[in-house]
Design brief:
Elements: H1 2-22, E1 24-33, H2 40-60, E2 63-64, E3 67-77, H3 82-94, E4 99-101, H4 106-118, E5 122-125, E6 140-142, H5 147-160, E7 166-171, H6 175-190, E8 194-200, H7 209-218, E9 222-226, H8 229-241, E10 247-250, H9 257-263, E11 271-276, H10 286-297, H11 305-322, H12 327-334, E12 339-340, E13 345-346, E14 359-365, E15 368-374
Parallel strand pairs: 1-3, 1-4, 4-5, 5-6, 7-8, 7-9, 9-10, 10-11
Antiparallel strand pairs: 2-3, 11-14, 12-13, 14-15
Helix pairs in contact: 2-11, 3-4, 5-6, 8-9, 11-12
């Protein structure tokens, strides 16, 4: 009888555990970005934004179709490399992941989007090249402004605020660098800014002295760099060494504390950049987000942590509205209305672009990106 007495509560506990497990639905969320190499700081920041949202969602124990959702994050290093990114995409699809946050780099997002589409996976990327959303993939969303908005905003700012009349262009030949430089040039011409010359580098280069010496002879008012912070930081230092007086302008990839770390005081009052999203310090939930992010990770939120946090929350809200975790149904729900997040209000057109994507222009003060104005 003693054995039976012991067994009864044990069996009851097992029965309850099985019942609870049966009422739980695992939702795998993939994260793809550079977790190694010079842009690893951005990949980790993006991952942390998603992770913070997932931890909060799991704490809420939200239910869909009578089952409690449990979100699990699978983060992969795509190295900001197209080939590696395609391999990561296939790995995530093969693992049964139906919701992906990333990629960070346009050069990865463009080829990987086809793999995700074939796997019926919903993708939320910060890849800004216009080609990212031109593939006709119904489950792809760009969660920030595209190059056309970022490049154009920087050109308008250069003309209207910095009063620039001439510009030299440098791009790193990546999908992002070429894309944002092209859009800047288009709007610069509209604004009456003369393009003095166009130079090219790579996303692996560290010495820009030859390029900058050529540019110095042209005496441009501003230099627009289409590329990433690991090149822009050293470039700013070399501009200082060559006594180049022009301001350096760039897209969202320059709006990072990493610029200050790499460029030192050479970035102060010299580097200006445009980033998708509104000023977090001015938004109603921005300061609270920044505080809880810092408490959780011991780091300040970088460029797109808030955007990935917001999109993960929107995906979850859309699951509840659709009462389904089918990515096709969730995607359809996401296109119906709008969602107010920390970094902005998210409403998408039929291509997956944000209908009204805010842009913030930053300058560097004390080696830190400081918001100047939002548009």
């Amino acid at each position: 009888m003693k054995v039976a007495t012991t067994l009864v509560p044990l069996l009851a506990a097992m029965s309850l555990a099985c019942a609870a497990q049966a009422q739980e639905q695992i939702v795998k969320v993939g994260q793809t970005g550079p977790l190694s190499g010079p842009n690893a700081f951005a990949g980790k920041d993006n991952e942390n934004g998603t992770r913070l949202a997932i931890e909060e969602l799991n704490a809420k124990k939200m239910t869909v179709a009578g089952k409690t959702l449990k979100f699990e994050l699978q983060s992969e290093d795509d190295q900001c490399d197209p080939k590696a990114g395609v391999n990561v995409a296939q790995k995530l699809v093969d693992s049964g992941v139906k919701f992906v946050m990333g990629p960070y780099c346009s050069g990865v997002a463009i080829p990987a989007s086809r793999i995700y589409s074939e796997g019926e996976t919903l993708v939320s990327t910060v890849g800004t090249n216009p080609k990212v959303t031109e593939g006709g993939y119904k489950n792809l969303f760009r969660i920030i402004a595209g190059d056309n908005q970022i490049g154009a905003s920087m050109a308008t700012y250069a003309a209207k605020v910095l009063k620039a009349k001439t510009v030299a262009i440098i791009d790193d030949r990546t999908a992002f660098g070429q894309g944002v430089a092209t859009e800047f040039i288009k709007e610069a011409k509209v604004q009456g800014i003369s393009i003095l010359n166009q130079e090219y580098t790579t996303d692996k280069a560290t010495d820009f002295s030859a390029i900058l010496t050529n540019i110095k002879a042209k005496k441009p008012d501003v230099i627009f760099f289409g590329g990433y912070a690991p090149q822009a930081g050293p470039m700013a230092r070399q501009m200082q060494q060559l006594a180049i007086k022009a301001k350096m302008l760039g897209g969202d990839t320059l709006c990072s504390p990493e610029m200050g770390k790499l460029g030192g005081n050479a970035v102060n009052d010299v580097v200006f950049c445009a980033q998708g999203g509104s000023m977090l310090d001015k938004s109603s939930e921005g300061p609270a987000f920044k505080a809880k992010f810092k408490k959780r990770f011991g780091l300040d939120a970088d460029a797109y942590a808030a955007s990935f946090y917001d999109q993960m929350m929107l995906v979850a809200v859309s699951m509840q509205k659709a009462q389904s975790i089918d990515p096709n149904k969730v995607s359809a729900e996401m296109r119906k209305g709008s969602y107010k997040g920390v970094a902005g209000t998210y409403a998408y057109d039929d291509k997956g672009n944000m209908k009204q994507a805010p842009i913030t222009v930053y300058a560097f003060k004390n080696e830190t990106p400081t918001p100047l104005a939002s548009y």
